[in-house]
Amino acid sequence: MELVLAADPMCSWCYGFGKEMELLLERRPEASLQIILGGLRAGATDVLDDAGKQFRLHHWVRVEEASGLPFNREGLLARQGFVYDTEPICRAVVAARILRPEANLLKVFRAFQHAFYVDALDTTDGVVLANVGISALTTLGHPTTAEEFLETWKRGSTIAEAANDFATARAMSVSSFPTLFVRKDARLARVGAGYAHVDALEQHLSALGF
């Protein structure tokens, strides 16, 4: 069974959904997973102001209630001059995919999410992203260096590959993140859009014949 997940590391519902995806893959060890980076706010230039912080905190409370995952609210409120651009962190996941294609990309993806939502790191900074990326890959048994990661992250080909992911998500008619698909009869069937508990995912897959 091949699953395809369209998601963005700086989408709070995707953060909550990451835990459910890991549980699903534990239940379905035969399944493979492809992650398509969403580019939720790729290229955004507006600074996160107080209204933007409160808007996100409202969603964070809902995600925390649904998923039980922690959020660093103080870290968000303390941010000054932060531009909520999701392209750099999406590109960091792509860089990890390029460098170590054999690694468990979902765990890498979740490490970047943790860096933003819990550690309150600046996930638009290439050096920060490189350090998060090498830590995640090393933990998974696929070490690399910060220099190699940062160089890969900066490459034009990596920027282009991330942009291709964004275009692929749009071509798949993804209108919200996360959206999960399963490949069936050479086509992608939508399992669900938005946050869902692992039991609900199992029910949807069963209804599709899996």
TrEMBL record:
Top-level division of the source organism's lineage: Bacteria
InterPro entries the record matches: Thioredoxin-like_sf (IPR036249)
Protein name as annotated: Thioredoxin
